[in-house]
């Protein structure tokens, strides 16, 4: 039996969103069967791979790959040509449908049998807040449809044969959904409605196709097509005026939106809108009076300067108010801070030093992680670039010879103002200005198991000091974002979306682990005072938001006693607790929470126990026994949310109780065939890029400008 509904999913550079989109469709109940036509519009990221993997696992998905990038309109046409359902529903690859929506839509289709079903559409902003549902309480058709707001494309479910008979296709320019929606509603009066929001449209995401671009002028041509429809041409003068005024109003809003159209492109778009107005103003009722009529008069005469003067009064008032608020804020600062900020502003006016790089790690806690590995490799491959570290006074020891500046000093402000390169595994303070000539590299500091970034508001108990506005400002500054594997790339494309470039290189800090040999193990043990014959177990639990102090779920003293006299336990507390561990009493437990290098600890150990810490992904590079001890797995999933099922896809051994943990060590199950196979699958998924050359790949791309290969 043929499917009732085909959902056409055009996808271009949406690797981080596509699984969520497809899940929203395929996890729903269908009344008479559903088909998903996923069209890869020649994406250069992992989008095509995601489609193929999902199609191989689910026969309801039809994978279509285009040879070249043709844009969403042509991609939808390609999907439409492959669709077989009685109805088609166009769902963009970065949007999704609401739970229960498919059954509700199909029930209404079977009941009404319309040419077009209008459904409610909700809007999800960049911060994941869903609001402002567009509800089709009345079905407008014919010319009446053009006097209302353009219908969101996701809010249209259309009978496929109707589209074929009417010859309606998508145009290839931007705003193709506008022309398509109006053409559909103008061609039929057989329209039904379904008011609840069934489609969730993601707006203003970083990296979206319709960001700031001069291509927004193409909206003029799409409105020209809509105004040229026969139902408009044959309408009475008053109705023609209403439709034309709506078109002009929509286009001027686009032109004046600085987040859409660059300032340099506004004059040209104004001229095109002027030409559109003159072309379609024949046989319309007279222009209105007042300011609205004057605006149309200036537009018709292509008087851009006069139009700007007319619009300028309101903007000037807003500018004065903004300056007043800024002056008030400065008045409240201390004299010392005001002097430092003045100095910082002076430095920002000086040229960027092309051979200066500034580094930071863990909110300036010390010299560590990916930035440290990049710093060392840059000294070798780009010796002309001088590196300076920002480190808080009293932080962990910095290696001898590494230049340091302290936050809040003149040296600090001079460095961050003048450095060409800014490398950090966390964030620079929000008041740090990102100059156009500067390059900011976000290295991150772990492969994510837990939900992070802009997905985190879905788990309110984990938010704490989470500030989405500040995060968005930070994201706008990142030119490069480093990921360790495809899993991370797909997640962070949605959780930390940037307009810059993702470097899927592996983690620079793991180069040391990938290259470690017997001599490195011996040196690490000697540094820690460990015997060669000891079995060393590293225990590194993660932070838990619901604990205000370091409270490991495993008693390290009890563990050492249970594992026997030849076992030494290294206890590594999370850095959120200022490197303070849980003071051990057992002689074979060593608190290494303040030890500067977790890589040294990993190399020195024979096995590791952790829970939800990202250190598991790093330790897996060593291909040694890895044990997950997670008595509170359900709690963690509920509070933080997770990106995959760690219990099912663990890296060797998964234990929930102390007795299970000890038994796994005593029987050798931590490294038996089953554990090694699980570890192998885990390494293939998360460690395939860890070959000892990640830092080199980053330095060559960022400092030397070489392509990533």
TrEMBL record:
The keyword Heme does not apply. It is found in: Cell membrane. Residues 6-130 form the Glycosyltransferase 2-like domain. The lineage of its organism: Bacteria, Bacillati, Actinomycetota, Actinomycetes, Micromonosporales. This is CDP-glycerol glycerophosphotransferase family protein. Belongs to the CDP-glycerol glycerophosphotransferase family. Signal peptide: none annotated. Keywords: Cell membrane, Membrane, Teichoic acid biosynthesis, Transferase. It is a peripheral membrane protein. Pfam families: Glycos_transf_2 (PF00535), Glyphos_transf (PF04464). Its main location: membrane. Transmembrane segments: none annotated. It comes from Actinoplanes subglobosus. Coiled coil: none annotated.
């Amino acid at each position: 039996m043929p499917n009732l509904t085909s959902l056409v999913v055009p996808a271009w550079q949406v690797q981080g969103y596509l699984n969520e989109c497809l899940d929203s469709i395929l996890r729903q109940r269908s009344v008479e069967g559903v088909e998903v036509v996923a069209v890869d519009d020649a994406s250069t990221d992992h989008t095509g791979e995601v489609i193929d993997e999902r199609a191989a696992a689910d026969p309801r998905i039809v994978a279509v790959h285009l040879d070249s990038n043709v844009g969403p309109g042509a991609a939808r046409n390609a999907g439409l040509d492959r669709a077989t359902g009685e109805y088609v529903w166009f769902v963009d690859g970065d949007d999704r449908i609401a739970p229960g929506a498919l059954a509700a839509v199909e029930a209404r289709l079977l009941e009404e049998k319309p040419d077009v079903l209008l459904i409610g559409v909700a809007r999800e902003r960049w911060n994941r807040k869903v609001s402002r549902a567009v509800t089709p309480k009345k079905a407008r058709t014919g010319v009446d449809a053009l006097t209302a707001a353009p219908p969101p494309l996701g809010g249209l479910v259309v009978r496929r044969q109707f589209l074929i008979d009417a010859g309606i296709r998508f145009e290839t320019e931007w705003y193709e959904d506008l022309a398509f929606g109006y053409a559909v509603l103008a061609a039929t009066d057989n329209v039904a409605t379904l008011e609840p929001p069934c489609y969730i449209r993601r707006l203003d995401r970083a990296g979206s196709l319709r960001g700031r671009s001069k291509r927004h002028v193409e909206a003029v041509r799409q409105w020209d097509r809509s105004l040229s429809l026969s139902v408009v041409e044959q309408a009475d003068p008053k109705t023609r005026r209403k439709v034309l005024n709506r078109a002009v109003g929509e286009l001027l809003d686009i032109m004046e939106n600085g987040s859409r159209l660059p300032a340099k492109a506004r004059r040209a778009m104004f001229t095109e809108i002027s030409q559109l107005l003159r072309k379609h103003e024949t046989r319309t009722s007279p222009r209105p009076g007042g300011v609205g009529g004057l605006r149309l008069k200036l537009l018709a005469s292509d008087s851009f300067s006069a139009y700007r003067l007319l619009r300028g009064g309101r903007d000037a008032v807003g500018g004065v108010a903004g300056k007043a608020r800024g002056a008030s804020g400065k008045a409240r600062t201390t004299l010392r801070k005001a002097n430092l900020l003045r100095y910082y502003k002076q430095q920002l006016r000086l040229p960027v030093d092309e051979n200066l790089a500034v580094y930071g790690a863990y909110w300036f806690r010390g010299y560590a992680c990916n930035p440290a590995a990049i710093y060392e490799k840059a000294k070798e491959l780009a010796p002309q670039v001088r590196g300076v570290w920002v480190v808080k006074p009293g932080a962990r020891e910095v290696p001898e010879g590494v230049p340091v500046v302290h936050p809040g000093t003149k040296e600090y402000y001079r460095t961050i103002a003048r450095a060409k390169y800014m490398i950090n595994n966390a964030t620079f303070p929000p008041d740090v200005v990102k100059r156009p000539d500067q390059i900011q590299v976000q290295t991150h500091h772990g492969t994510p198991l837990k939900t992070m970034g802009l997905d985190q508001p879905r788990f309110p108990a984990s938010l704490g000091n989470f500030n989405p506005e500040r995060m968005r400002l930070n994201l706008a500054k990142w030119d490069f974002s480093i990921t360790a594997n495809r899993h991370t790339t797909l997640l962070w494309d949605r959780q930390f979306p940037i307009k810059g470039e993702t470097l899927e290189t592996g983690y620079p800090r793991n180069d040391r682990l990938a290259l470690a040999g017997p001599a490195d193990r011996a040196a690490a043990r000697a540094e820690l005072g460990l015997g060669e014959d000891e079995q060393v177990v590293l225990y590194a639990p993660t932070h838990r938001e619901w604990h205000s102090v370091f409270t490991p779920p495993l008693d390290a003293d009890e563990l050492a006693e249970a594992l026997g006299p030849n076992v030494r336990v290294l206890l590594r507390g999370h850095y959120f607790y200022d490197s303070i561990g849980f003071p051990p009493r057992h002689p074979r437990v060593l608190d290494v929470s303040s030890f500067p290098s977790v890589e040294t600890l990993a190399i020195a150990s024979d096995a590791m126990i952790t829970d939800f810490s990202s250190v598991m992904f790093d330790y897996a590079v060593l291909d040694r026994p890895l044990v997950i001890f997670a008595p509170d797995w359900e709690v963690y999933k509920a509070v933080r949310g997770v990106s995959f099922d760690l219990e099912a896809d663990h890296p060797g051994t998964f234990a929930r109780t102390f007795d299970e943990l000890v038994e796994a060590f005593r029987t050798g199950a931590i490294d038996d065939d089953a554990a090694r196979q699980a570890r192998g699958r885990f390494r293939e998924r998360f460690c395939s890029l860890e070959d000892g050359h990640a830092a080199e790949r980053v330095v060559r791309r960022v400092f030397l400008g070489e392509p990533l290969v």
